[in-house]
């Protein structure tokens, strides 16, 4: 079985370089085009990929991205809160390049004030992966539509990363990842 992972399309907060965890933001025109493009790619590879189930973060930017994929694959995505982005707490809506934000971001076991740590996000990621492995034993493959930090946490399930490697890991908007489950 394979697991495919797509990060949502570009949002207005991405453009403004604001921390957007559990806050809602809107896809930009570029983000909608990115979503259409990845949906087209998935449709073209529909037979090869054999995606039979889609799980999506309940946050609007992920759901809006998933709509294009749902249409392309003729499937209905299942919302799952485990796929939500990290909660940046007090940093939600603030610039992500501030020294205070970056200090916490570089330390996976530190929680953002009133938010989560990367380790907590990884726990959620590992939980849904294990759940999917137990639940889906058929011939079909799975697709997650989620977020950047969540997608990075999913990557750590399949490959070990040093702290430095993890910091350099960048999941682009609508990047398609593929893993063997």
Overall radius of gyration: 16 Å
- SSE order, one letter for each helix or strand: EHHHEHEHHEHHE
* CA-CA gap between termini: 5 Å
Query: Structural class per helix/strand content?
Result: alpha/beta
Uncertain stretches:
none
Largest sheet: 5 strands, mixed
Number of beta-strand segments: 5
The strands making up the biggest β-sheet line up spatially as: 3-2-4-1-5
Characterize the structure shown.
The protein has a five-stranded mixed sheet with strand order 3-2-4-1-5, sandwiched between helices. It has helices at 12-15, 29-44, 46-49, 60-73, 99-105, 118-135, 148-158, 163-168; strands spanning 2-7, 51-56, 78-79, 141-146, 176-180. The N and C termini lie close together (5 Å). Strand 2 (51-56), helix 4 and strand 3 form a beta-alpha-beta unit. The mean pLDDT is 97. The protein is built from eight helices and five strands; from the N terminus they run E-H-H-H-E-H-E-H-H-E-H-H-E. The longest helix is centred in the C-terminal third of the chain and has 18 residues, at 118-135. Helix 2 (29-44) packs parallel to helix 4 and helix 6 crosses helix 7 (148-158). With 181 residues, the protein is α/β, with parallel strands linked by helices.
How are the SSEs ordered, and which strands pair?
Blueprint: E1 2-7, H1 12-15, H2 29-44, H3 46-49, E2 51-56, H4 60-73, E3 78-79, H5 99-105, H6 118-135, E4 141-146, H7 148-158, H8 163-168, E5 176-180
Parallel strand pairs: 1-4, 2-3, 2-4
Antiparallel strand pairs: 1-5
Helix pairs in contact: 2-4, 6-7
């Amino acid at each position: 079985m394979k697991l495919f992972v797509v990060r949502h399309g570009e949002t207005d907060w991405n453009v403004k370089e604001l921390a957007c965890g559990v806050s809602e933001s809107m896809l930009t025109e570029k983000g909608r085009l990115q979503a259409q493009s990845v949906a087209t790619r998935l449709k073209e590879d529909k037979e090869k990929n054999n995606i039979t189930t889609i799980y999506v973060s309940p946050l609007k930017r992920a759901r809006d991205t998933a709509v294009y994929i749902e249409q392309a694959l003729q499937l209905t995505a299942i919302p799952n809160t485990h796929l939500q982005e990290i909660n940046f707490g007090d940093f939600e809506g603030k610039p992500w390049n501030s020294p205070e934000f970056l200090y916490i971001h570089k330390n996976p076991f530190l929680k953002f004030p009133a938010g989560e740590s990367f380790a907590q996000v990884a726990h959620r990621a590992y939980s849904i992966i294990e759940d999917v492995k137990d639940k889906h034993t058929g011939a079909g493959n799975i697709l997650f539509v989620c977020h950047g930090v969540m997608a990075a946490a999913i990557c750590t399930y399949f490959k070990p990363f040093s702290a430095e490697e993890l910091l350099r890991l960048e999941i682009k908007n609508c990047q398609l990842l593929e893993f063997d489950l």
